[in-house]
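Hi there, hope your week has been kind to you so far. Thanks so much in advance, here it is:
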Amino acid sequence: MRFDIPEQKKLTYEMVIPIRWGDMDAMGHVNNTLYFRYMEIVRIEWLHGVAGPPDMGGEGFVIVNAFCNFLRQLEYPGDILAKHYVANPGRSSFDTFITLERTDQPGVLYATGGATVVWLDIAAAKSAPLPDALRRLLM
């Protein structure tokens, strides 16, 4: 099953992530688990930048699903351009979408993926309304 990134999305962040020698597996390409790590890096970097780190006594964010479409094999050496998008803001959640491409091959997608983020009242272990400032960034 393939999950596609919706047309109605908002680009919120971009960053370059180096491919490390240790990211490769015995097959000579970046291990599939690292694609999720790259997506986590850009998602967390953006979330911490706009909402701060989770406050263990207050509110923060969790993901409730994650997916990745592996389109091409990433290989060392190189750098990845990760683009982070948001869509579908709800009362307490929104979707994130990420594209991964090599910086030396602009526009050529190597992977697409994303996750649903839920804003959480950490002490109550229940979803909470998105903060207004975060909601404005999602629109």
User: Anything to note?
Assistant: Helices lie at 32-51, 132-138. DSSP finds two helices and six strands in the chain. Residues 10-138 form a domain with the Thiol Ester Dehydrase; Chain A fold (CATH 3.10.129.10). The mean pLDDT is 92.
